[in-house]
Design a protein that fits this description.
The chain is built from ten helices and no strands. With 201 residues, it is an all-alpha fold. The termini are far apart.
């Protein structure tokens, strides 16, 4: 269903189906976050931006936090239910997931944070893997929210200013998002390179 309807999952598409009532609109967005949690075909940034268009910034951020909790929790608990078979399947289908096995050193919160910050895997697949490997849920959730915290703020700001692409707020959000992403990806690459060299020695 999500794959066949993926072209409708745009900011305009979400807004066109959103109820006019603020309460119903919030519930509808949370439902979309739940749907996104079980499908790699929906981009979470669309929902973050839509909340910024529909609500004032503080409410949009709070709604995004709640939606993110739903989005990262459902596949996590599904992974916990499926267990080792799910983890092995992910490692087989997504070679990048092997890096998670190497990175896991018992520091579950930092691991959850960095994997979200650098987007090492699609969000739903990462959540499924974390649950399947038995990582502590409170540490996983805290790390995930910290790793995605910037997007929870910058995307609704983009949404609020989407009709004015020349707005400094719009461009500042994009630049900050890109710079922070590059910083974390670069840091991860340097650390991985250093670790490989140490292993070779």
């Amino acid at each position: 269903l999500c794959f066949c309807s993926r072209e409708r999952f745009t900011v305009d598409g979400v807004l066109s189906y959103t109820p006019e009532s603020p309460a119903l609109a919030a519930l509808f967005l949370l439902l979309l976050f739940a749907l996104k949690s079980l499908s790699v075909f929906v981009y979470s940034g669309i929902l973050y931006m839509a909340s910024g268009i529909l609500f004032p910034l503080p409410i949009a951020i709070a709604l995004n936090v709640a939606g993110t909790v739903v989005m990262v929790s459902l596949p996590y608990w599904l992974g916990r239910k499926l267990g080792k078979d799910a983890a092995d399947g992910i490692l087989e289908k997504y070679p990048k997931a092997a890096a998670l096995r190497r990175m896991r050193t018992g520091r579950e919160l930092p691991l959850s944070f960095i994997t979200r910050a650098i987007n090492i895997l699609p969000s739903d697949i990462l959540s499924l893997y974390m649950g399947a490997t038995g990582i502590s849920y409170p540490r996983y959730l805290a790390g995930s929210l910290l790793g995605m915290a910037l997007s929870l703020v910058t995307f609704p700001i983009m949404g609020m200013n989407i009709t004015e692409p020349a707005s400094p707020w719009f461009w500042a959000s994009i630049v900050i998002q890109v710079l922070v992403s590059v910083f974390f990806i670069g840091g991860y690459w340097l650390c991985s390179r250093k670790k490989r060299r140490e292993e070779e020695l």
